[in-house]
Amino acid sequence: MADIREIKMRMRTIADTEKITKAMYMISSSKMQKARAELDRTRPHFDALNNEIKRIFRSRSKINSPYMYPADGSHDLPGAYAYIVVTSDKGLAGYYNHAIIKEFESQMTDHESRYFMVGDYGCKYCDAQNIPYEDDFRYSADNPTMRRARLMADHILDEYDEGRISKIFLIYTDLENGIVQKAKTVRLLPFHRREFMDPNEKESVKFDFHPSPEVVLENIVRSYVAEYLYSALVDSYCCEQGARMNAMDEADRNAAELMNTLRLEYNHARQGKITREITEISSGARALRKKKGDMANGR
């Protein structure tokens, strides 16, 4: 049976750990609520940009733009493919990072690729696996902001506009229905017309764009990509905080179970010690009575 002092020390350690996990749970909850509120404030502008792109595609049957797939419908484009991978800066987030790394690995092919990592966890993974990534594209995943998303969009679009990459993919964690987390890969560029077409729209709607739909689309793209990135960063950040909350909640439950086990063990050890002390006292008293009896009988 374990020593009582050792059990009490373990119980104090677990109690201190519970304080930390509860605090981390509350912090993650606060961060997630703040991030979601900020995203909701920018959502109307993103929806407006998305609708504007729909109008462009609905108004013209043919648009020649570097941001669209070629007119011949070919999808296997020459040049490197860019992958923006969003992980976290820290651990203790349960399955969150493992899921995004698994999705990242599933996208690795023989095609020439360039990797743009967001978050320290992804960088450390690439370093450990000797996977080259863009060292000048290192952004924190913590507390995402629109300014950071614009810097990322400008960086990646400069590479795209100069022909150094032909496709841009984003690997992040989506908070589906506000509850379920899912690591997914989406293509940011080039656009495909059907992604913006309304299946219920039977006739093209005529709009006038000045100086041309291509120029309007070019001006919209940077804002669209920046806001899509921001949305993905916030979704990933919320998923990270949610995963951390679940991990801390699970740690609390495990700590409570362990604490109950230690309390039982402590009570048994304490009861055993008291029993031994009573037995020793009783044995000593019996021995003393026997000794006095022997002395009284002259033995």
CATH topology of the largest domain: Pyruvate Kinase, Chain: A, domain 1
Name of the CATH class of the largest domain: Alpha Beta
The assigned CATH architecture of the largest domain is 3-Layer(aba) Sandwich
Strand order of the largest sheet: 2-1-3-4
List keywords for this structure.
299 residues; alpha/beta; Pyruvate Kinase, Chain: A, domain 1; 4-stranded mixed sheet; 4 strands; elongated
Structural summary, described in words:
Helix 1 (4-59) runs antiparallel to helix 5 and helix 4 (146-161) packs across helix 5 (213-296). By secondary structure, the protein is α/β, with parallel strands linked by helices. It has five helices and four strands; from the N terminus they run αβαβααββα. Helices cover 59% and strands 12% of the residues. The protein has a four-stranded mixed sheet with strand order 2-1-3-4. 25% of the residues are buried. It folds into two domains: 4-14 and 251-296, no CATH class; 19-244, 3-Layer(aba) Sandwich (Pyruvate Kinase, Chain: A, domain 1).
